[in-house]
């Protein structure tokens, strides 16, 4: 097999596929990148058992400048191959595979020879038997993931919580994540009248990699679901992710329906205050910040202290304070993650007691986006 291609276009596709390749895999061939050259296209594939990425370069793509001399396939060690291609001296490169899968890469005066593997030993990509495709706006989907993935658990002891729970019911898509200390839920309405229903859990790490691939050039993303795989399609790329098995906990009962104290803030102002208070709380053994509400005086204070360093106290500007007095402690890192997800909007914080989870919602879209944080007991 032999082809010539512009190096920059090739690097872009290599970078996409390498997101799915891990050097830590126990299956040696999966440290490699599969190159499949057909009459009118090259197909690049990478996989790590959790995700698989396949992308295509067409001869009709003028930016790629792809010229195919002969067809064939090979698997090349991804790490070495990627580094070689990035450091080649010329704008174009030629790749030739001879008998025994020895691969020659030439560009300008440089020539590399590396050993390849038989592509027939590379695992086949999953088959998606779903007949239904959901089309999503890529920006909305990226935002959905970004706003919920912050609450995904990193603890493998409860694998089900390392994913985002997606529930599709008609035209409503709900995404929920929780690590049992906090929860994030986002609901979006889908265009069109779909009658489909899904209930799936996709690993958070897979979704982070997927959203990193969705740049401004990608306008829509298509999603298909089978028994244990989700397939996302955009441009010339296929992104497969395994699904997590099991039942996600019923998170709806965790969200309080009543409150005794309500505060309204600018999310960015509150975030800045929490960041200042956490400068000291991070130095202490207990990473805790305290919020004190004096409803009668319309005063809200944030404080943090570290016996080793000192303490900080700050009065925060609020839009409104209603309900009962309150003193509550929480992990400032959870609060910062939650506040960043709201951007520059105004938010409502609702409390039921010092030991019950409290909620943050945007004032203009309170039904469709909620962050919940469990307080820290300090006595």
Automatic annotation (TrEMBL):
Keywords linked to the UniProt accession: Cytoplasm, DNA replication, DNA-binding, DNA-directed DNA polymerase, Nucleotidyltransferase, Transferase
Asked if the Swiss-Prot or TrEMBL record annotates the protein with the keyword Repeat, the reply is no
Q: Name one GO biological process term.
A: DNA strand elongation involved in DNA replication
List the subcellular locations. Cytoplasm
| SUPFAM superfamilies per UniProt | DNA clamp
CDD domains membership: beta_clamp
Annotated ranges, domain DNA polymerase III beta sliding clamp N-terminal = 1-126
Protein's UniProt keywords contain Transferase? yes
What GO MF terms are annotated?
A: 3'-5' exonuclease activity; DNA binding; DNA-directed DNA polymerase activity
Domain annotation DNA polymerase III beta sliding clamp C-terminal: ranges: 253-376
Q: Outline the extent of the DNA polymerase III beta sliding clamp central domain.
A: 135-250
Q: What is its main location?
A: cytoplasm
- GO CC term, one of those recorded: DNA polymerase III complex
Task: Name the family.
Answer: Belongs to the beta sliding clamp family.
Q: What does this protein do?
A: Confers DNA tethering and processivity to DNA polymerases and other proteins. Acts as a clamp, forming a ring around DNA (a reaction catalyzed by the clamp-loading complex) which diffuses in an ATP-independent manner freely and bidirectionally along dsDNA. Initially characterized for its ability to contact the catalytic subunit of DNA polymerase III (Pol III), a complex, multichain enzyme responsible for most of the replicative synthesis in bacteria; Pol III exhibits 3'-5' exonuclease proofreading activity.
- Quaternary structure per UniProt? Forms a ring-shaped head-to-tail homodimer around DNA.
What's the protein name?
Beta sliding clamp
Instruction: Tell me what organism the protein belongs to.
Output: Pediococcus argentinicus
Taxon lineage: Bacteria, Bacillati, Bacillota, Bacilli, Lactobacillales
């Amino acid at each position: 097999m032999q082809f010539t291609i512009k190096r920059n276009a090739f690097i872009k596709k290599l970078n996409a596929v390498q997101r799915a390749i891990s050097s830590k895999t126990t299956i040696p061939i999966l440290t490699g990148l599969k190159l499949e050259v057909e009459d009118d296209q090259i197909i690049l594939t990478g996989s790590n058992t959790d995700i698989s990425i396949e992308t295509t370069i067409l001869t009709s793509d003028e930016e790629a400048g792809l010229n195919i001399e002969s067809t064939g396939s090979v698997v090349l060690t991804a790490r070495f191959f990627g580094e070689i291609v990035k450091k080649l001296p010329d704008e174009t490169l030629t790749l030739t595979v001879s008998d025994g899968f020895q691969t020659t890469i030439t560009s300008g005066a440089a020539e590399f020879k590396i050993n390849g593997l038989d592509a027939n030993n590379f695992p086949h990509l999953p088959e998606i038997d779903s007949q239904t495709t959901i089309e999503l706006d890529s920006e909305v989907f990226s935002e959905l993931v970004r706003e919920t993935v912050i609450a995904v658990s990193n603890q493998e002891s409860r694998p089900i919580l390392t994913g985002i729970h997606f529930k599709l019911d008609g035209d409503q898509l709900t995404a929920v994540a929780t690590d049992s200390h906090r929860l994030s839920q986002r609901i979006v309405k889908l265009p069109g009248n779909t009658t489909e229903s899904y209930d799936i859990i996709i690993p958070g790490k897979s979704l982070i990699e997927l959203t990193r691939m969705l740049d401004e050039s990608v306008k829509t993303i298509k999603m298909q679901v089978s028994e244990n795989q989700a397939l996302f399609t955009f441009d010339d790329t296929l992104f497969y992710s395994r699904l997590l098995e099991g039942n996600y906990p019923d998170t709806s009962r965790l969200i309080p329906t009543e409150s005794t104290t309500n505060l309204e803030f600018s999310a960015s102002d509150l975030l800045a205050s929490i960041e200042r208070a956490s400068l000291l709380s991070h130095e202490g053994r207990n990473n805790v910040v305290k919020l004190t509400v004096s409803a009668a005086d319309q005063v809200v204070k944030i404080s943090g202290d570290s016996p080793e360093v000192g303490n900080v106290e700050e009065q925060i500007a609020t839009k409104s304070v209603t309900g009962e007095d309150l003193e509550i402690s929480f992990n400032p890192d959870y609060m910062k993650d939650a506040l960043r997800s709201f951007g520059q909007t105004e938010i409502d914080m609702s409390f039921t007691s010092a030991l019950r989870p409290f909620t943050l919602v945007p004032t203009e879209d309170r039904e469709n986006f909620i962050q919940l944080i469990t307080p820290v007991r300090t006595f």
